[in-house]
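[scheduler] slot 2 assigned
[scheduler] job type: sequence-to-structure, two independent chains
[scheduler] chain ordering preserved from manifest
[runner] begin chain α
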Amino acid sequence: MSEIRSKTARAAAPGGVAADGPRPGLALLVLAAAQLMVVLDATIVNVALPDIQRALGFSGSGLEWVVNAYALTFGGLLLLGGRAGDLLGRREMFIAGLLLFSAASLAGGFANSEAFLLTARAVQGVGGALVAPAALSLITTTFPEGPPRTRALSVYAAMSIAGGAIGLLGGGLLTTYASWRWVLFVNVPIGAAVALAAARVLADTPRRRGRFDLPGAITGTAGIGALVYGLVSAATSPDGVSHWGDAKVVASLAAAAVLLAAFAVIETRSRYALLPVRLLRDRNRTGAYLSFAGVGIFVFGMFFFLTVFMQAVWGYSALKTGVAYLPFTAALLVASGTAAQLVPKIGARPILLAGSAASTGGLYWLSRISEHATYTSAVLGPTMVIGAGTALLFVTLSLIALNRVPEADSGVASSLLNTGQQLGGSIGLALLGTVAWTVVAHSIHAQAAYAAAAAARAGHPVHPGGPLAAAIYNHALATGFGRGFLVAAGIALLTLIINFAVIRVRRADLAGAQQPVPAPLAQPAQRPVTAKDTTIGETPMTTPASTPG
């Protein structure tokens, strides 16, 4: 009987170790550690930006590209990275991505110019685009559907969401006690250790029949890249100036619309589609992708604006800001474990609705923040509620999006989840930034006019700067960011509507009755696949089941 169970487990996990094999725990540790490294890199660098600006002489507008260069290549190449794992072997792409990410981090740490650092950050994004979808797809092929996969995804989800908060804390520690260069150097030993462990712990994954869809790869990658570039360039700046009408923004968004429309047409006709349309015919999976993008919008927005608020208004240091997110991380970890226990008992749908409702309520609560409030009264409670709600959403949406995906499509299905989260984050910063900074600028002008009028009536001169100017600015930030959090609550409410109206998954659907269907191997006993065998022509299109970023 035990031999039968062992064979069943290995069949259910065609691309990695068997779920009940000798080292599934180590495999999960390796995959979660890699995802944590990729995700925290998006925030760990944010804390070091002032030090980077002073050291390398970045301008204010150029400094944002230390973050955007990574986001652009990471978001733009996720689909291609996921498909590469499906065709060329997921373990191979996972290790290659880790090594590339680590090498770029090492180079970035030694950067002595703006161009050097930005190039390294862009290459980091390429490595991350290989690692993230490969890690999630390896979980789906290693752990069979049902409780084993639910538990694995709860750990993975915790690492994916907690990475942002851990990055802020780690960045604060490194910049305070070491140097800004260590926010990049720290990736090198971690990446090397994870890559070495992956080669030993993860079973070799076979290459599959198929070719790269060159037209789809070009239009899809360029379209997503243009969309991310347009969005990160469009947000209203802190001085209240909107950039949505800038020529580069209009051109980028128009190019993205044309390229993505062409991509959609190509994918419906391609035999080897990069994004197989069949993956989107499942309403539950499509609803999960849409809802996941919404999660990206409000989570990225919350991290950005709350971090700026605590540092600019309350005077928090980078380290203290990171510590302030520890309760959020704790709530997230507890809720991830709770979701793993509840899904087999009550199904995913009640947990989805609870997660959306909690996130909506927490963001609305956070929108009441003011410059006179305290951390305990205005931030502690809301962030814990948001952390718990986000964890419930992340675990269940990942399960639904990857449920019953053919094994050959698991890489692209995973990358689609990652793409949704990454695009959601870019949309969130552009949309919420436009709302928040516009309100901030209007509030400053209104308060300044009121103060000038009051001074004129009293016969006193108005002195620029000083305590009055600081009070006006702090109140404007509280007002504008509060409005941004309110819009984020509206996005969370939209995810609640999507989860209620679109996703109809039943408890039995996630019970593990059906395992991923193995794809035919590409003559594994014969000669290795050559470059000619993977010619970029028409590529099978697989839907990415994203990871979180």
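[runner] end chain α
[runner] begin chain β
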Amino acid sequence: MDDWRKRIADLVHTYFGTRSPSRSRVEQFLRQLEPLVAGADVPADVRDIISNLQTMTIVLRQSSSGEPVYVLREGRLAGELRTEAVRGKSPRELFPPEVNAITLPMVARAFDGEDVEFSYTLDGRTFLTLLHPFRRNDQGQVTEVLGSMVDVTTERQYALELEHSERLFRTLIENMPCGVLYEEFAPDGTLARVVVNSEFTQVTGYTREAYRQITTEEWNTRIHPDDRTAIEQHYRQWLESGSTAPLHLQYRFLDRHGIERWLDNYLARILHEDGCEGILQIVLDITERATAEQRLRHAASYLEQSIEPIIECDKDYVVTYLNRSAYAVFPEITVGSSIRAHPLAADIEQLDTVVEGEPQSTVISVGSKKFMRLVAPTERGWRLFCHDVTPLVEAEKALRRALEHEQTMNMLRTQFVSTLSHEFRTPLAGILTAAQLLDRYGDVMTSEQRRETTRSIAARVRDLEYIVESFTRRSALLGRTDATLSEIDPAELIRRLADEIEIIKRKHSSVTVSGDIPGRIQIDAELFRAALEVLLDNAARYSLEQSTIEVHLTLTDTNRLCVTLRDHGIGIPAEEMDRLFLPYFRSSRAGNIPGSGLSLATLKPLIESVNGSLSLSNHPDGGMIARLELPCTVIASHVEHFSPTAGE
């Protein structure tokens, strides 16, 4: 009997000592217990041992009437209905109908030769019962059934709670706004379990079945080539380290449909008691965020790499950022300084009127440069883009000057036609008059009168030649697009002109030239000659015979040749000075002196078109003073001093 006790104690410890009861354990316990109760009557010592178990062991024998009756009912779960109290009695006699409705059909199946397992609840407790046919008669019919029952109330509660937790876990997994992948590996490294949620399928395109079919190598090929090597290295190091610390990875991933996505991947290792190891991955699709960050980086890179100065300031106009170009162009501006006092912000107060989201552009001056300043509102203040438009502004000015010059030239061409017609009338009228005199009175004229009339015709012809030459030169000036500089000696050129101008020779006027200028200079010689022709002609025309015309030459500090010409003529009334350069204007003092009133009107715009100037004024002692200035370049290395010299 001692050997029985030891064997039963070993069985109880093996199957119920350290682990929760289950069908398999109860079944194995019964099979091990069967030889110990194989006799006709269960030994009392064995019954005593079984009665102290936390389970209940029963033996049912089929009576002559076919009703199952108890032979053995021991264990703490038996309560007061132990073997001595139930021997020879049927369960039908001992238990309520609702229990018998469950247990008796199962007992009948056991007597039919089946191993039967079932559970039922009584008084709030759940019992797991296993029935095993273990004794048969000569005809093979089951005569006795061995059974064991355990209280699985706690285990069932655990199972229900586990089932509830699993449903809750699955619900949470399925409804999480991020992809979830769980892989569980057996101790031998084989993949035992895979769990994915719908968001994981949405992000990667892989269902649970599709993921199980793909190999690790194939999965890794879905990672962008530029990210693959680094990601594989980090993941391998994490696995080999055995660390339970989470791993965070970011990479580009080509989903099953060929769409590139940015993924934020968090991995955690889970170690189970049975030796299995799980890898839980949380996958977030951060494509929009990564794209936005990439755009921000590009924007920041543009700001820094831009060749245009870019300045940012807060709403109080304190500088918060300058790119490299801004530092180079505006070294006086620093981060933390205010731009209110800087020329760049000459109208900074007007920024308060900028409509949100609409940039405002203004051309402003900073020193000698012009900038197109574009002001755009930001969350914290303003961003100023400064584009150097100095070349554009200068080109615009040059274009405007060229346009104005062309308009002036067109006007002058029209005036020249009128002037030429007007100027021709006087000498032609003189020629016509002289010719008519000769025709009518030639026979009665003295020889001297005929010679005088002939000389008058010749003088008028020379006037015409001079007018034609003068207007030809001025017409050439009108057709120019750019001034042509030539090297001349201005004093020598003035003397030659004095010798060529017909009115000077006719009135026997003299021209003196004085001043301190280099011997030779570079100047617009054509315009200089045309201007001096008009000024010398007018000076002689409106002066008495044998008068002196004084010309003085000087150089200004700004490389401009200044010609001051004084005559001793009739002068101009002060009230008529403002109209002196108007077309066809002639002074009230001109009287019968021939003239068109167009020479000065056409000359002044030509001079101003090359940045020169022309002015006339009365001399206090009588006569006029003309002041002409033209740009020039000094090429002589010394200065010559001229004393007043009369023209021949």
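[runner] end chain β
[qc] chain β: The radius of gyration is 62 Å.
[scheduler] slot 2 released
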